[in-house]
Each structure stands twice: as structure tokens, then as C-alpha cells.
Amino acid sequence: MRPDEITNAAISPTGARAVFEAHGEIFSVPAEKGDTRNLTNTPGAAERDPSWSPDGKTVAYFSDASGEYKLYLRDQTGFKEPTVVDLGPNPSYFYSPQWSPDSKHIAYTDKHNRLWLVDVPAGKPVLIDHAIYSSFSTSFSPVWSTDSKWIAYARDLDNQLDAIFLYSLDTHKFTQVTDGMSDATNPAFDQNGKYLYFLASTNDGPSDAGIDLSSLDRAESNAPYVVVLAKDGASPVPPESDDEKPKDEKKPDSEKSSDNEKKDAKPSAKNETKSDDKDKKDADKDKPAAVTIDLDGIGNRILSLPIPARRYSDLFAGKAGVLYLAEGSSIGRSSNEDGGPGIQALWKFTLEKREPESVLSKLDAFEVSTDGTKVLYARKGGWTIAPADDLKSGNDNPGKPLNLGEMRMTVDPRAEWRQIYHETWRIERDFLYDPHTHGLDVPKIEARYQPYLANLGSRAEFTYLSIEMLGEITIGHMFINSPADHDNAPKTGLLGADYTVENGRYRIAKILGGQNWTPGLASPLTLPGVYVKEGEYLLAVNGRELHSSDNIYQAFDGAAGKQTVLRVGPHADSKDARDVTVVPIDDEDGLRNLDWVESNRRKVNQLSGGKVAYVYMPNTGGAGYSSFNRYFYAQLDKQALVLDERWNEGGLIADYIVDVLKRFPLSGAIERDGKPVHDPVGAIFGPKAMLINQNSGSGGDAMPWYFRKAAIGKLIGTRTWGGLVGIGGYPPLIDGGRVTAPRYAIYGLHGDWEVENHGIAPDVMIEELPKDVAAGHDLQLETGVQTVLDELKANPIPAIPIPPYPNYHKNDGLGRN
Questions:
Q1: Which 3-state string (H, E, C) describes 183-241?
Q2: What pLDDT is stored for residue 254 in this prediction?
Q3: Residue 142: how many CB atoms within 10 A of its CB?
Q4: How many CB atoms lie under 10 A from the CB of residue 247?
Q5: CA distance to 24, 46, 310, 547, 562, per residue, from 416 (Å)
């Protein structure tokens, strides 16, 4: 079992073990001593989301062994048959079972945005609350009070911000705690039973703006707060003051003697009560802290904690008075599509010291044991259980890594394919935006394709079957991915160059320029110290002669990322040759795309006489957002714009692009020195055109659609793909494969599905023909340039006149100013 197959994890109540969901099984792994146990051993079923009961006896998880997901309660040893809890007549996907401290109840959520409560082992599910808006995240982050009588959770409001709620098991009612003017999330009860902590932000609204491109790269922060639960409760952070404490007065000798007599008087009584006191302390320790929650006026008992605002992604309560805060990136939603570890730093805060301390960094996951004494954390695929007291500044690797090498299972491919087959149709049933599946009779179509399962011989054949059967739904974004290929074979090295064959040798015809200062876009032959020139011959690689009869890529087999010595020179006979050391790359796509973009930009500049800007957007996600910002704002000196979104792969909805492009002049401005400017500064006020083609889809469909709605300019090229639905947030298949079920769809303002399965037609139809490309022409690009030039000629950009400077002291002829 590979560590990257772990999808969920939980720590046992005292940190003796951890449980993991991996490849559809539940594994129990010891912190140090003992064996790893496969608690489930069900190759034909999916087990998900393990959670260990606080009394240490039971592991809860969801399983589809019965055909639909139900709650399973299994003895921690795995030896006994599990107790199965039916979760009601409406099947769904269920998430995050959270045990009550007394191990008698479990709170959980489902795909349909509902929060549930069930008694164990065989209680009937009770609906606690449901979210207002659909979301890719189904977690309410429910947590239990120490006396198991209250559940705190976060839920969205009509304004789309989250608030903290409290649910009483006695009254079966919920109460909103925070006022809804901030985004409040991640509640956690202190083990002392007196306080409820949570995170809240007042500036993350723009970052949470749904699927809008304008939500990217906005700095966001939040801070931890505490609710004093009882109306007569004291502040956990009262004012502090340094004062002199008077020294004790010296006692008279007679009092000292009296004290000594008292000490000697009852030695046996003290010894007799010592054992009783210990028993009482042990009993009190095991007894849950009493909880008093007065809902009346509770909003006035919310206090800020003395912890600096950052962007915290989660909050955990440890032992009484101890908090852990997981800090993420300072950017709410980043345009960097490789965000790295989710937890950049873990902070520890105690009510006693009141000083947050950074104790861990670069984590993928973190959890605290029920008793607060141990923590479980993940970093770079490894998992570790550590004593909570060892989390201190300067000790970034506390604890001993868990041995995950013994997580083993029996794989039965045919049993897996049967499970995945039904899982696939359940995902379509529960996640597809249309509950009627575009009119498809799902049970009928599932039964029609099921006989093919018996004769499948490989996962590739199962993938092919999935493609055929899901095509019946007739929708875009229906993606089927096989499990990842973990081939670690060395990769072929590439130099970022094109070659011709001349005089029996390979000759370098073109070197891709690249951007050597940008990670991933360095061109190997242009780096300092290399200086290979176009027109030179590539004569040998690592001392082996290279001729045109040889396969040039075979010479670079396994060379990617490794220092490689090239012999290059101006002559095919090796005269005046020299050796240079380069580090080949394993992928040239980025360099070739950049070369195409830069060639287009230069061509537009040439065709327009420097009047027209060219901007390319490969998608409407992070890369497209970054590309637009880089190229658009670098060309504000231009008068018109051609925006190229051909082959746009989609992503988010490009509201930001439309907002920028439709800006109009509001004012001029001038300083004492230099040229005048206009406002808004970040704008090109002249005509604009957008290039589209049949390979522009998803967000690449929406952008020209919005471009037209905003009357920004003409669309030039061919009709777009026509796939304006959205995907994300699905459970992985047990073998690591993936399947999507478009979970939201975008429609027009007049009640029509205007784009999905239709696409956006151009205003000017221009097909890209092979003969034109072979002749070196890009007619779509050339037409776009000519279109905006014609519009610019017909409607020149009016200059903003500079007014005469005011003279407020001109003589009025009467000797007065």
C-alpha cells in the first residue's frame, strides 16, 4: 500500500494508534508497538472516513458493502462482526463521523448539505440542520461539548458567509451564536467545558466569491475568538497587571511551635486520606467537565484572543486551555495551482502563557487525540504520532514516524470493478446537477451495461466501458480517469530546440527562448555558461558520437534533470567543436507555448505598427489569470487589444477579465513632471476583439459569452466547444481512479441553457486551414488585428484635454485679487 493512497486518517483517543482509509480499506497502525491491522478486508466494498470512539472500543466508518453507504461500528481489534446502522431511506454519500465524548452518539454530514445525529449502536438518524447553498465542501465541522449535550458547528447564511451555531440534544433546537457579519468557522470546545473557540474573518468575502476569477490572489486573514458559555463565566484572558506582593510577616516563635504541634498531631490521618484523595482525583479526571450554556446574550460574551490575525485554515482544542492553529497561505485562493502543503505553520497557544508559538511547519494534515495528550500529523506522505507536550519551537520533527509499510490488502480486480461500476452510477445519481439525469433512466442503463463486467480483462477495458456508458448522459466534463501510473523510470531529456538533418548530423535550427527567471520555463541551451547558437551541430552526447542515422532522443534517455555534456560546433566534421554542460528538461510544452505566444505578440505588433496589444489566455484558472495580468498591464501603451483564448482549457468564470476590458475613462491626471495619465490607469480604451475556436471550452465558453454580453468587441474564429458545467469534490474510486458528475450548470438570464452543448458562435467566422498554416499565416489572428485597426480608424480614441492651470489670484480690475 502506497502512502499516497491514504485519503482519510484519525488518531485513537490516547494516541496509541491511528486509523487510515486507503484503497477502500480501514487500517489500524500502532504508534510504536504491535502489528498493523486491516480491520475490514473487503476487496469488493469501499470503506471511508474512519473515526475512533473516545472510549477506545470502536472504530466507526461508512461502507457500501450492502449496496448503499451505511454507518459501520467495528471493534478496534477487527475480530468481531461490525454493527451496521441504517442511515435512512434516502441514500447519499456521508462524511466525517464525529463521536460524542460519552461514545453514545455520532454526528455526520451528507452530500446534500445536511448535518445529522444518530444514537449508537442502532439509533434513528435525526436531522440537525441543513446548509442553504450547495458547496464542494460538505463539512459543517461539528464538534461536541465535553458533556455530550451540545454540538457546535458552522453553517452558511443567506449572505453566503458562515456563522457558528449551537445545537442542544435536550431541546433539539439550534441557535445562531455569531452575528453573520463575519465569516465564522471551525468551532472547538475547550476541555474545561467553559469556552467555545472559533475562527472569524471580515475580509475573505472576495476570496469566497464562488467560481469567479476575481476571487484569486486576494490577501485574506482571520483570527481566533472565544465564547464564554455561561452568563456568569469569567473571561479566559482577563486583564493582567504587575504589582508588588507584600512579604509575609515574620511569625512569633510561639506560633511556629503551635504549627509544628499541629503537623505532628495527625500524621496517620494525613496518610489515611492520601489514598482517598488520589482516588478522588482520578475519578474527577475521568469525569467530563460540566457544561453550562446560557444562550441569552451569548453574542455579547464573544471575545477576541490575543493572537495575531493570519490566515488560519483550522483550529484544534488540546488539553484544557490549549489551542492549536493551522496557518495556511496568506492568499485565500491562489493563482498558483501548485499550492504546496496546506498547513504552512502550526501555532500553539495556551491561556496561561497567552503567547502563540510556532511549533510545526509544512504539514499536510494535523489532528489531536481525544484526551489532548497526543497529536497525529502528516508531512510529505509520512505520518507521525507525537506527544502534545513535545510540540515546541525549535523541534520541528517530534515523535516517531509510523510504519506504514505493513498496510496490506488482497486486491481482487473483478470485485473492485464491480464495486467501482456501481459507485460510478451512485456518483452520477448524487452529484449530477440534474436530478433527472437529462431524462436518462439510470437503473435501466446501469442494468444494460452491467453484463459487460463479467468479461473484462483489464482496468483499461473497464475505463473504456465507463466512457461508453457515461456517454449516455450527453454532457460535457464527463471525465473518467484510470488510477495514476506510478512509473518512476528515468525520463528522456529535452533541450528546447528544433533540429534539421544536414551533412549526416543533427543541426540546431531553432532554440526556444524561454524565460530563464521563471521556474519551469528555463531554456537549457540559453542559460549562462552554455551559449549554444542556432546553426551549430550537435555532435556528441556524454562522449558518444551522434549521427543523423541515430535516434536523437535515445541519446538523451534518462538525462532529464541530470548534467549532460554536449559536443557542439559550427562544422559537421567536429572542427572547432567544444564541450558544454547542460541540464535537459523532461517537458517542452511550456517553452513551445511561450514561443508561440511571443511570436504572435511580435506579429501583432508588426501588423499594427505598435498600436495593438496581444494577450493570450491558456485557461481561465491560475495560469490564464497570471498570463492576462502579465501581458495586459505590460501593454497599456497600446490603443487596441486582441485577446486570444483559442485552446482555452477553462477553469473559473472570467468575470475579472470582462470587468477590466469594459473600463472607460473617468478622469485625467497630471503631475508637475512627466506625461499625463488617465484613470482608471489599468485600461485600454480602444477597440477589442477576442479570438475563439472549437477547442475553447468551459470557462473558455463563458468568457466569450460574457465578452459579447458586455458588448466589448467582436468574436473572431470558430464556434467554441460548448461545455459550460462545473466539476469537483467527488470521492475517489477505491483503486485511485476518478469519475466526474458535473455538479452545477450555468444558464442564461431568460431561462435557457444557452451554452452547454451549443457553444458560442463567432461574429466573424474564420476557419484555420492547413494550407494557410503551412504558408505561415494565422488568418484568425490577422483578421483580429485588422478588425480592431479598422474600428480604431473609424473611431479614434479621443484625447483627454489638459485644462488651463487655474489662476485664483487674477486681478479683477478693481485692485482686488
A1: EEEEEEECCCCCEEEEEEECCCCHHHCCCEHHHCCCECCEEEEEEECCCCCCCCCCCCC
A2: 45
A3: 25
A4: 6
A5: 9, 9, 44, 50, 40
Angle at 558 between CA 557 and CA 560, to 5 degrees: 110
DSSP state of 558: T
598 grid coordinates: 511571443
**In terms of Cα–Cα distance, which of 369, 761, 792, 390 is closest to 610?**
792
Q: In what order do the strands lie in the sheet with 688-692?
A: 612-616, 640-644, 688-692, 713-717, 764-765
Instruction: Report helix, strand or coil for 281.
Output: helix
**0.85 exceeded by pTM:** yes
Grid coordinates given for 690: 477576442
Half-sphere exposure of 563 (CA within 13 A, CB side): 4
Q: What are the grid coordinates assigned to 33, written together? A: 508497538
The pLDDT score that the predictor gives to residue 276 is: 54
CA gap 116, 132 in Å, rounded: 15
CA distance 740 to 746: 17
C-alpha cell at 67: 449496496
Residues near 333 by Cβ (< 8 Å), separated by ≥ 6?
A: 207, 215, 216, 217, 218
**459-470 vs 442-449: helix axis angle to the nearest 10?**
150
What is the rounded distance in angstroms from the CA atom of residue 336 to the CA atom of residue 59?
38
Whole-number pLDDT of residue 519? 84
For cell 480499506, the residue is 25
Count CB neighbours of 103 within 10 A.
19
Query: Quick check: helix, strand or coil at residue 739?
Result: strand
The residue written with cell numbers 528555463 in the block is 522
Would you state the pLDDT for residue 816?
57
Do 204 and 181 meet the contact criterion of CB atoms below 8 Å apart?
no
Write down the residue that cell numbers 449551537 correspond to: 166
Given a contact cutoff of 8 angstroms between Cβ atoms, the answer to whether 188 and 318 are in contact is no
Q: Which residue has the cell 490521618?
A: 269
CB-based contact 619:648 (threshold 8 Å): yes
- Mean pLDDT for each consecutive 10-residue tract of the chain (817 residues)? 90 98 98 96 96 98 97 95 94 96 97 95 92 82 97 95 97 97 97 97 85 90 97 94 76 48 46 52 67 96 97 96 95 77 95 96 97 97 96 95 95 96 97 96 96 96 97 95 85 97 97 90 94 96 97 96 97 96 96 96 98 98 95 97 97 96 96 93 97 97 98 98 94 96 95 95 96 95 98 96 91 60
Q: Locate 477 and state its grid cell.
A: 466534463
- From the list 623, 638, 586, the residue with the least C-alpha distance to 700 is 623
d(CA 4, CA 411): 17
The alpha carbon torsion through 23, 27, 31, 32 (nearest 10 deg) reads: -100
Q: Which three cell numbers stand for residue 506?
A: 543533427
Q: What does the alpha-carbon distance between residue 441 and residue 108 come to, in Å, rounded to a whole number?
A: 30
Which H or E run includes 805? none
CA–CA dist 7, 92 (Å, integer) = 19
SS3 274: helix
Q: Can you read off the three cell numbers belonging to residue 685?
A: 480604451
Residues 326 and 304: their CA atoms lie apart, in Å, by: 17
> CB atoms < 10 A from the CB of 476, how many?
21
pLDDT of residue 210: 75
- In the block, cell 481561465 appears at 620
Identify the bridge partners of residue 264 per DSSP, sorted by sequence position.
none
Could you please report the per-residue DSSP string of 511-533?
E----TTSTT---GGGSTTT---
HSE-CB at 303 with a 13 A cutoff on CA atoms is 17
Spatial separation of the C-alpha atoms in residues 356 and 393, rounded to whole Å = 10
Cα separation, 763 vs 27, whole angstroms: 59
Q: In angstroms, rounded to a whole number, what is the distance separating the alpha carbons of residues 362 and 379?
A: 7
